[in-house]
Amino acid sequence: MLSLIVKAGGPGSFVVWQTIFNRLMPELTVIDWHDKTADLASIDYAFVWQPEPGRLAQMPRLKAILSVAAGVDHILTDPDLPANLPVIRMGGEDTAAQMQDYVRWAVFSLLREAPRWHSAQHKQIWARQGVPPVRLSSETPVGIMGLGALGSAVAQSLVQAGFPVVGWSQHKKSYDHITSYAGTAELETFLRSCSILVCLLPETSLTRGIITCDVLKQLQKPAGLINVGRGRLVVTSDLLRALDDGTLHNAVLDVFEHEPLPAESPLWSHPGVLITPHVASEASRTARAGYVVGVIRAFERGEDVPLRYDPQKGY
Ligand code: NDP
C-alpha cells in the first residue's frame, strides 16, 4: 500500500484533496499533514506547499517530494531537507494553459494601457492625455525571460497572438518564430530587442535580484514589465524608481518580494501598475492531483520523471 501526505491549501481543503485522490488512485492512502497521529514512518510521497522545516526529515521511507506549485523554492528553504530526495515541480497542460492565458491578458493590458484606465476609472477621470500612441501587437516585441516549460508555452501563444517574440534562457532554444538568446553574454541584446519583458525565471542564487533599473533601462520604450516568476527576481526599490522616472511605463505584477503585498507598498496605488495576488497559474485540484498520480505511477514503474529539480542547476 502506498501513502501520500498532503499539505495543500487552507483548513478544510484536505478532505477535498483526499476525495479527488481516492477517485483517481484508490490504492493510495492519503494522509493529512496536520494529523498529529499520522505514522510518519509509513509515508512514501509528500505533496506540499511551504512544509514546516524539519518535518519531511521525519519521514524515513519518503521516495519523492511533489510541489503543489511549479516553483520549489518554498521547499528548498528547509535546512533539514533530506539530501538526494527527488523534488518534483508541478506541471501538466492546465498549468501551462493558465499561464498562457494570464500572460496574454497581461500583455494586452499593458499594450492597451489598462493600468492607467483602471486608475482613472477609480477617480472617475475621463482623461486621454499623457499616454503613448496606441501600438499594434505586431509592432510590440515581447521578451520572455526564462524559456522553460512555462516560458516556451507562453512564447508560442504570444507568437500566435501576433507579437514578435524573443526569449532568454541559460541554453539556446530552437522554436519557430522565436529568436532565442542565452546566457549573460546575450542578455543586453535580448533586452534591447523587446519592449514588454515577461519574467518567468525560477528564483535561484543567480536570478535573485536580476531585474534592476539598469536592466529595465535597456528595454525599448514605452517599456512594460510582467512578473509572473517570483517577487525576489525584481529589486523592488529599482522597480519603483523605474516606474516613477518613466524608465518603465507600466507593469503587471503577480508575485512580490513579500506576499501578501504589504499594505504600505506604493505599488498598490501606482497608476502604472496592475496587481494580482499570485494567481497567474493555479490549475484545478483535479488537474494537479492527476499530475501527482501520474508522477507516483511513473516512479513506481522506475521511469524518469520530468520537471525534477536539479540541484546542480538550482531549478
Ligand atoms: P523551468 O525550470 O521549466 O524553466 C526555467 C527557465 O529559466 C529555463 O528556460 C531556464 O533556462 C531559465 N533559467 C534559469 N536560470 C537561469 C539563468 N541564471 N539565466 C538564464 N536563464 C535561466 O520552469 P517553469 O517554466 O516550469 O517555471 C518558471 C517559474 O515560474 C517557476 O520557477 C515559478 O517561480 C514561476 N511560476 C509562477 C506561477 C504563478 O502563478 N505566478 C505559477 C507557476 C510557476 P534553460 O531552459 O536553459 O535551463
TrEMBL record:
Superkingdom to which the source organism belongs: Bacteria
Entry keywords, A to Z: NAD, Oxidoreductase
UniProt key word DNA damage: no
InterPro entries linked to this entry: D-isomer_DH_NAD-bd, NAD(P)-bd_dom_sf
D-isomer specific 2-hydroxyacid dehydrogenase NAD-binding domain residues: 106-280
Protein name: Glyoxylate/hydroxypyruvate reductase A
Classification lineage: Bacteria, Pseudomonadati, Pseudomonadota, Alphaproteobacteria, Acetobacterales
